[in-house]
Design brief:
Rossmann fold, eight-stranded mixed β-sheet
């Protein structure tokens, strides 16, 4: 990548600085070393953590979320899925043991290298396909080719335009009768401080020398990732409300029992599920 392209990418997507910083580090590390040194980028932990414990935490979430989405055990062995924002494979390994084909998609090529290594050791490598998303907003996957489009704790780190684009892409690549399951973050009272602070951090990240060091400081990175807050109405408007009940059916907003969620569109169900973070919600919908 040329210097001008790097600068342009930084200016357009400053919230991606820590991802690129971690990606550069992981280029020279094994997956296990990446977890131990930059694991907080993917799972909030560093130090006394191994690739095995890292993927075990992902395995637990894979099992739980597939159950929440209505997939009984052993019902997905002939299905194809895409994981938007796979990172180095914390959940990908678990998915690869359950689906015939898993497309792991990420903005960083080095993460995908480590993802392949993670799945080799803790998943089913024959099921894995990797998809690089250098533009951060499109999927190089054939339209109508996957049974499940899944994304967890990724779309909140994109700028809102890229997040909306990836929602549209998720619908595009999902086949008739397939399911989209996308995780978002919405507004909480704490965001009155977090969002402006995150914007300030991203402004400082526009200076490469400063960004190089800031991107390795956990607190600053967490602030800088506060890139968007999207409500169900925001996302459904992107898809076009006319699609709800026509192209999309069984549209459900999954949220925490501790959080009330408002949805303006008709034909949208709301479902409270324990262990969903109060600031998070899921869009679950089937392609009609």
């Amino acid at each position: 990548m040329t210097l001008l392209r790097r600068i342009a990418q930084r200016l357009r997507r400053p919230q991606g600085v820590p991802w690129r910083s971690a990606g550069l580090l992981t280029e020279s590390l094994t997956a296990d070393e990446a977890v131990r040194s930059t694991g907080w980028v993917f799972d909030n932990k560093i130090g006394d953590v191994s690739l095995a414990s890292f993927t075990n935490s992902g395995e637990d979430e894979v099992r739980r979320y597939l159950n929440v989405f209505g997939f009984p055990e052993h019902s997905t062995s002939e299905l194809v899925m895409v994981e938007i924002g796979s990172g180095i494979g914390r959940m990908t390994a678990g998915f690869s043991k359950r689906f015939r084909t898993v497309y792991a998609a990420d903005i960083d090529a080095a993460f995908l290298e480590r993802c392949r290594e993670t799945v080799f050791h803790h998943g089913e490598p024959k099921a894995l396909r990797t998809v690089h998303m250098p533009d951060g907003r499109t999927l190089d996957i054939e339209s109508g080719s996957v049974d499940l489009a899944f994304s967890y704790i990724t779309l909140q780190h994109c700028n809102s335009n890229d997040a909306h684009s990836l929602v549209t892409e998720a619908v595009r690549v999902t086949k008739v009768g397939g399911l989209i399951a996308l995780n978002f973050r919405t507004w909480t009272p704490l965001d009155a401080a977090l969002v402006p602070l995150g914007g300030l951090v991203r402004v400082l990240w526009r200076t490469p020398k400063i960004a190089k060091y800031m991107a390795r400081v956990r607190v600053l990175t967490r602030l800088g990732w506060q890139a968007n807050r999207l409500s169900p109405d925001d996302v459904l408007a992107t898809l076009g409300l006319d699609l709800v009940g026509s192209r999309l059916r069984d549209v459900t907003i999954i949220h925490s029992p501790r959080r009330r969620v408002s949805v303006s569109a008709d034909n949208v169900q709301r479902r409270a599920v324990r262990r969903i973070h109060p600031s998070h919600w899921w869009l679950l919908a089937r392609l009609a």
